Amino acid sequence: MVGIIVCSHSNLAKGIKDAANMILGEQKNFDSIGFYEGDELTNYGNKVKEITDRYEKMNMQYIIFVDLLGASPFNASAIALAAKDSRIVTGVNLPMILEVLMNRNDSSDIDALLKNALASSRDSMKIINTKIDLEEEVKK
Prior knowledge:
Structural class: alpha/beta
Distance between the termini: 45 Å
Helix content: 40-55%
């Protein structure tokens, strides 16, 4: 199993975690951390480190998912884990998290797991012109 940490500004990480648990059922070793106005990077990094230390004590690999490259949740995570062989994935979204959660027990190759999750995430993004696309469906 691979541990999952979702890190974001405000409540986004909690919302992604709640939605994933609603869809897949309650998930173990799946954490979220929100960064709020007034929070300090050091404290945020310590929260990340506490969770990753727990995963390491269970001999688990883990992945950190963040909302934005170069923003506070990313920076705090990168600093906290600088000496470790960790993966931080930017641009977190629900399809990406669902893909990882559904396949994390079957994969010992964390990089292959992430490659598939990123592909799934990209494939889930579509632009739907409701007027045109729905009219075409009705004609069928």
